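sorry for the late reply, my laptop died twice this morning and i had to redo everyting from scratch. anyway the thing you sent over, i finally got around to it. pasting the sequence first so we're on the same page, its 54 residues, then the predicted structure underneath. double check i copied it right bc i was rushing
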Amino acid sequence: MNSTALRTVFWVLLAAFMAWDWVASPPVDLRWEQAPIAAGSGQAVHGGHCSMPD
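ok and here's the structure:
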C-alpha cells in the first residue's frame, strides 16, 4: 500500500470509530459531573458546580 492509501484508511477508520462512539455512548449530564480538579482524589465533591441548582 502506498502512503496515500494508508492515510485514507486511517482517517476512514478514525471517523468510523468516532461515529460509533457518538452513537454508543450515553449523553453527558453536566449537572452531575464532578469538578475536574477533584477527579480521582477519593474525596466527596462539594461545591463543584455551585451555580447549578440541586
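Residues 38 and 45 are 7 Å apart (CA to CA).
thats about all i looked at so far, will dig more tmrw
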